[in-house]
TrEMBL record:
Gene3D superfamilies: ph1033 like domains. This is UPF0310 protein EV700_2613. It comes from the Bacteria. It holds the Pfam family EVE. It comes from Fluviicoccus keumensis. Belongs to the UPF0310 family.
Length: 144
C-alpha cells in the first residue's frame, strides 16, 4: 500500500521542482528521499513564498506521485549537490492550511501544529492526503 507524505519547502523552490519534475527535501539530503516508494503520494507545504523569507504563505503548493527510481545527486553549481527524486506533479491549485487545521488528523487540536513540519518530510494518513487534495481541487490520487 502506498504512503502519503508532506514535504516542506518555500513556494519558489516548489515551483522549480514542479516545472522540472522533481522534489528535494531537507536541504538536499538523500536519506529522507529513500523513505519514499514509487506511487507514494506527496504534497508540498510552503510556509513562505521565498526561502528564508518573512513572506508567510502557509499553503499547500504541489501534489503528485513519486516515480520509479532512486534518489539521485544533481549538481546545482557552487559545490551544492543535493539529492532529488522524480515526481509526476498534478495540475492543482494552491490551498491555505488554515481552514484545514481543525480537520486534519495531523493538526487537529494542536496549538503548536507547525512543529511537525520542522522535520521537512513527514508521513500523513490517507484521509489527510485526500482532504488536502480536495482543498487543492484535485482528484485524490488513490492509494493502492
Amino acid at each position: 500500500m502506498n504512503k502519503s507524505w508532506i514535504a516542506v519547502a518555500s513556494a519558489e523552490h516548489v515551483r522549480r521542482g514542479r516545472a522540472e519534475g522533481f522534489m528535494q527535501v531537507c536541504h538536499g539530503k538523500a536519506g529522507p528521499l529513500r523513505r519514499l516508494r514509487p506511487g507514494d503520494r506527496v504534497v508540498y507545504y510552503s510556509p513562505t513564498v521565498t526561502f528564508g523569507g518573512k513572506d508567510r504563505l502557509q499553503a499547500f503548493t504541489a501534489l503528485g506521485a513519486v516515480r520509479a527510481g532512486e534518489p539521485y545527486p544533481f549538481d546545482m553549481g557552487g559545490g551544492f549537490v543535493p539529492f532529488r527524486r522524480d515526481v509526476d506533479w498534478l495540475a492543482v491549485g494552491q490551498a491555505s492550511i488554515l481552514p484545514l487545521l481543525a480537520r486534519l488528523e495531523l493538526t487537529a487540536g494542536k496549538k503548536n501544529w507547525g512543529y511537525a513540519f520542522r522535520f521537512g518530510l513527514l508521513e500523513i494518513s490517507a484521509a489527510d492526503m485526500d482532504l488536502i487534495a480536495a482543498a487543492m481541487q484535485a482528484a485524490a490520487i488513490a492509494p493502492d
